[in-house]
Amino acid sequence: MLVSSSPRDSEVPDDTVLDSLRGVVDPLESRHESDPTSPTDLKTQVIRFFLTGVLSAIVDYGLLQLLMLAGLGHGAAKALSFVAGTLTAYALNRRWTFQAEPSRARFVATMGLYAVMFGVQWGLFMVLVPVFEDLGWGTFWATTVGYVIAQGVATVTNFIVQRTVIFRVR
Fold first, then answer.
1. What is the mean pLDDT of residues 88-96?
2. 145 by DSSP, 3-state: which?
3. Is 122 helix (H, G, I), strand (E, B) or coil?
């Protein structure tokens, strides 16, 4: 029996093979949804990054406050809440903001950036909270203002590095 195939058929990968690899390259990727032929412009990326940041900050800050209410110290609570916010931000920024293909290298680079930003953000938070408490502020306000300042520094740095290095403009 002779089976003919066009040259185009041999160039197109079988979706079942690609589907079996989903989640291997990027542990947060379950389906391929991006369209590399339609990149987003800077304005759209900034708006999406901001919205993603707001959602990630809600996850981060909400978990921070819940963990502290549960009795965890503000340093350990911030470390855990940062991880949850970071994973939320990475998943949304890669898929929606920058519409990037899944990539192990990109995932590792992003996690490296987030590790550095964790040090910056956590360090600022740990320095600012006691300063604000020494000024007579209650724990809620000291941790809230410390969080906002540290988050602001990390957000601006993250956008610049992700846009110019990790998710290069197409």
1. 89
2. helix
3. helix
Alpha-carbon span 49 to 72, nearest angstrom: 30
**Number of CB atoms found within 10 A of residue 152's CB:** 13
Q: Which residue has the tokens 């996690």?
A: 111
What is the rounded end-to-end Cα distance, in angstroms, of the chain? 46
DSSP 169: -
Are 113 and 161 a contacting pair, CB within 8 Å?
Answer: yes
The encoded tokens of residue 59 equal 């996850």
Q: Which amino acid appears at position 86 of this protein? A: T
Average pLDDT, the chain: 80
Model confidence at 33: pLDDT above 60: no
Token pair listed for 78: 């911030």
How much is the pTM?
Answer: 0.62
Place of tokens 């903001």: 97
Looking at the chain, the whole-number percentage of residues with pLDDT higher than 70 is 76
Distances from the Cα of 30 to the Cαs of 93, 97, 162, in angstroms? Answer: 15, 17, 21
